[in-house]
Design brief:
UDP N-Acetylglucosamine Acyltransferase, domain 1, 319 residues, serine acetyltransferase, domain 1, five-stranded parallel β-sheet, alpha/beta, 11% strand
Length: 319
C-alpha cells in the first residue's frame, strides 16, 4: 500500500468515526434499530394485493399457482391479513422494539375490522367507476377506466387508506396515499372524507387536504387544490378544521384553488378554471373568471374579441 493510500484510508476511517459518533445524539433520525417502523416496500406490495381484492379480474397475481379463483383469493386474503397485521403492530409500537401482547391484540382487531370493511369499500369504488364512465366521453368501457385511469387508482387507494385512518392506524395510511401520489400525481390525504360517485378527470396536480369533506357526485379536474388558507401555525393547527367542504353535485374545473376550513361550496355549483376561492359559495352558483382581453390578428388587421362568435355553452369548461 502506498503512502497516499494509507493517508486516504486513515482519512476515511476518521470520517466514519465522526459519522458514527453523530448517531449518538438521540434524535429521531439517529434511530439504529431495524424493523421498528413499517416497511414501505411491504406496504406498497400490500396495495397491489388489495387492488386484486377490489378488482379481482383485472390485476394478475403471479404469487399463487392455484387455478380455482376463489381458492386463489382465499390465499390472497390470508397473505394480506398476515402482513398487514404485522405492519400495523409495528406502527402501533412506534419504534419500541419490545413485545407487547396488548398491542398485538389491538393490531389483530384492527386488521380484522379493516378486512370486514372491504365489501363496503368495493361498493363505494363501484360508484366511482360509474361516475368516471358516465362523466368522461373518452372512456370506451369501464374496464378501460379500471386498468388505465389514474383517477380511479388514486381514489381506490385513498378509500383503502381512509378505512385504516378511521381505525387510527399510524403512518401506514399516509404511506399508501403517498405511493398513489408518486404514481399518479394525485395527492389525497387519507383523512379526507369523500362521498359516493367521486370522479377525478385527468388528475395530475390535484391536492386534497386532510380535513376536506367532499359530498356525493363531485367531479374535479387536474390542478385543483382543496387546501388550507395558511399553515404558519404548524402543529398548533393539528386536528383543527383547515380545508374546505364541497357539497353534493359540484364540478370543479382545472387549476381552481379552494382554501380554508370555513369555505363551503354549496351543492350543484360549478367552479370554473383557475379561480381562487376563500369564502363560502351559495348552492347553485357558477363561479368563473371574467374573460381576459385578448387580441386576434388576421390578414386584415386586429379583430375585436366581441367579433369572435361564442361557442356552445355546454363546452365552456370542458377539458
Amino acid at each position: 500500500m502506498t503512502a497516499a493510500n494509507e493517508r486516504f484510508e486513515a482519512r476515511v476511517q476518521a470520517l466514519a468515526d465522526r459519522i458514527l459518533d453523530d448517531y449518538g445524539n438521540e434524535r429521531v433520525i439517529d434511530r439504529l434499530e431495524m424493523f421498528t417502523q413499517p416497511d414501505r416496500q411491504i406496504i406498497e406490495g400490500l396495495i397491489g394485493k388489495l387492488l386484486r381484492l377490489v378488482f379481482p379480474g383485472y390485476f394478475r397475481d403471479y404469487t399463487y399457482r392455484i387455478y380455482n379463483p376463489k381458492n386463489n383469493l382465499s390465499a390472497l386474503i390470508e397473505d394480506i391479513a398476515f402482513h398487514l397485521n404485522r405492519q400495523i403492530g409495528i406502527a402501533l409500537k412506534d419504534g419500541d422494539p419490545r413485545e407487547d401482547e396488548s398491542i398485538q391484540r389491538r393490531a389483530e382487531d384492527i386488521t380484522a375490522a379493516f378486512l370486514e370493511k372491504l365489501p363496503e369499500i368495493r361498493a363505494l369504488v363501484e360508484t366511482d367507476l360509474q361516475a368516471a364512465y358516465d362523466g368522461d366521453p373518452a372512456a370506451s368501457s369501464k374496464a378501460e377506466v379500471i386498468i388505465a385511469y389514474p383517477g380511479i387508482y388514486a381514489i381506490t387507494v385513498n378509500r383503502l387508506a381512509h378505512a385504516l385512518y378511521q381505525l387510527e392506524v399510524p403512518l401506514i395510511p399516509r404511506i399508501m396515499t403517498e405511493f398513489a401520489h408518486s404514481k399518479t400525481g394525485i395527492d389525497i390525504h387519507p383523512g379526507a372524507q369523500i362521498g359516493k360517485y367521486f370522479f377525478i378527470d385527468h388528475g395530475t396536480g390535484i391536492v386534497v387536504g386532510e380535513t376536506t369533506v367532499i359530498g356525493d357526485n363531485v367531479k374535479i379536474y387536474q390542478g385543483v387544490t382543496l387546501g388550507a388558507l395558511s399553515t404558519r401555525g404548524g402543529q398548533k393547527l393539528h386536528g383543527k378544521r383547515r380545508h374546505p367542504t364541497i357539497e353534493d353535485n359540484v364540478t370543479i374545473y382545472a387549476g381552481a384553488s379552494i382554501l380554508g376550513g370555513e369555505t363551503v361550496i354549496g351543492h350543484d355549483s360549478v367552479i370554473g378554471s383557475n379561480v381562487f376561492i376563500t369564502h363560502p359559495i351559495a348552492p347553485g352558483t357558477r363561479v368563473s373568471i371574467k374573460n381576459q382581453e385578448l387580441q386576434y390578428k388576421n390578414g386584415q388587421g386586429y379583430v375585436l374579441q366581441s367579433d369572435i362568435p361564442e361557442g356552445d355553452p355546454a363546452w365552456f369548461y370542458v377539458i
